[in-house]
UniProtKB/TrEMBL annotation:
Membrane-spanning segments: 26-47, 59-79, 91-108, 114-136, 148-171, 177-197, 233-252, 272-293, 300-318, 324-345, 357-376, 388-407
InterPro entries on file: MFS (IPR011701), MFS_Cyanate_Porter (IPR052524), MFS_trans_sf (IPR036259)
Pfam families xrefs: MFS_1 (PF07690)
Keyword Membrane (UniProt): yes
Keyword field: Membrane, Transmembrane, Transmembrane helix
Designated name of the protein: CynX/NimT family MFS transporter
Origin: domain of life: Bacteria
Length: 420
């Protein structure tokens, strides 16, 4: 009897020791989320300094701002296959290490390092963008909207902080824009360390999942798995995310320039960008209450898309009220990114489907988003005015509200198991 007890104990004890506390798992997700935007949002406030130092013109700076988004578009479809081969947790870990390296490299002297480091930054963030929503779907299936709102708010909060401190860091260090960007390598390394701690329980969870999958194997042939690229629902979610991202990244890159062109000091323009994103934190958390547990999110999608249209109209017709319009834009942007990411989980049935939809939505969506900063740079450079850029942003937000009427419906990308 004692022998029997001894023979079974090590296995159980080993699993318990390898298990990671849920708080550590959530903390790891939040730290990764906090690293996914500062490498991008810290650029806008110092874009004029960067351009003056490197000799890049408006069009080239717009392309530089779009480069991470192009990396998102290229690598997002590959994230699911990579995670299937190496494991989602391991891919996220190495993405954080590569992110830290890319941030450091792009701050080195020489334009070649700037472009190369920016490409690595975009590639690393692309993997995190795709895999975090699918990990949330797997680990928190009953609280997708709530957890999505939490990690999105952390992501937005760090993005806002990066915008606000970019110019002060540049002034304090006397190094121009380089330290403003390089400082964010530290949080990426911290996130990698905590994520490595989270991975201690991956092997036992994977083994358990494999056992469960094996027991459920007879049911698999009943599921008709069509390609996510052939699903109308998937395309609707993709376009909603793409339009939301286009307005966000356009403003992240060019809002400070729009502000300074109207006489706002550079430091104040950076804090306006901070305000835009800080408001997004509150709206991102609030919208999860509005969303509730409902599968149908049409009304919420339209309601939260329209303040961006109003904000752009205000910037055109009442520019003296700029802080008010920045707040309105932040409410819209902060809430709609939560809706977009939550839809990826709400419109799929399984972890694998979520990863595939996430890859598709972020590939095509960010390809569309990349056009935003590029178009804004060319419009401003070609016309000598920011008015066409403001009108473009309003048009993108209006299109987003229309797409929400389809993407928000209670539909799935794949048919219910057993249906044909």
């Amino acid at each position: 009897m004692t022998v029997s007890s001894t023979s079974t104990t090590p296995h159980t004890t080993g699993e318990n020791r390898s298990a990671v506390h849920p708080a550590v798992k959530l903390l790891a997700v939040l730290l990764v989320a906090g690293c996914l935007r500062p490498p991008l949002t810290s650029v806008g406030p110092v874009l004029d300094l960067l351009g003056a130092d490197t000799g890049l013109g408006t069009a080239a700076l717009g392309t530089l701002g779009a480069l991470p988004l192009l990396a998102f578009a290229v690598l997002s479809p590959l994230a699911h296959g990579t995670s299937s081969r190496f494991g989602a947790e391991r891919v996220v870990l190495w993405a954080m290490v590569a992110l830290a390296a890319g941030i450091a490299v792009r701050s080195l002297p020489g334009n070649a390092w700037l472009w190369a480091g920016t490409a690595v930054v975009g590639a690393s963030i692309a993997l995190g963008n795709v895999l975090v929503p699918s990990i949330v779907k797997r680990d928190h299936p009953g609280a997708i909207s709530r957890v999505t709102g939490l990690y999105t708010s952390v992501m937005t909060g760090f993005a806002a902080l990066a915008s606000g401190v970019a110019v002060p860091i540049a002034a304090a260090t006397g190094s121009g824009w380089r330290w403003s960007l390089a400082v964010w390598a530290g949080p990426a390394l911290l996130a990698a360390g905590v994520w490595a701690l989270r991975m201690r329980g991956t092997r036992s969870r994977t083994a358990s999942a494999g056992t469960a999958a094996g027991m459920a194997a007879p049911a698999v042939p009943a599921i008709r798995e069509t390609s996510v690229w052939r699903s109308p629902v998937a395309w609707q979610v993709t376009f909603f995310l793409g339009l939301q991202s286009a307005t966000f990244y356009l403003l992240i890159n060019w809002l400070p320039a729009i502000q300074t062109a109207r006489g706002v000091p550079a430091s104040a323009a950076g804090w306006h960008l901070f305000l835009f994103q800080a408001v997004g934190i509150v709206s991102g958390l609030t919208v999860t209450v509005i969303m509730g547990a409902r599968a149908d999110q049409r009304a919420t999608g339209v309601l939260m898309s329209t303040p961006m249209v109003a904000a752009m109209a205000g910037m055109l017709w009442a520019p003296g009220w700029s802080p008010v319009w920045v707040v309105l834009a932040g409410i819209s942007s902060g809430s709609t990114i939560v809706i977009a990411l939550a839809l990826i989980g709400l419109r799929t049935r399984t972890f694998a489907q979520t990863a595939k939809l996430s890859g598709m939505a972020q590939s095509v969506g960010y390809l569309l988003a990349a056009a935003g900063p590029i178009a804004a740079g060319r419009l401003s450079g070609g016309t000598g005015s920011w008015t066409p850029v403001i009108v473009l942003t309003a048009g993108l937000a209006l299109a987003q509200a229309c797409v929400a009427l389809w993407a928000g419906r209670d539909r799935y990308t794949h048919p219910e198991p057993g249906t044909t």
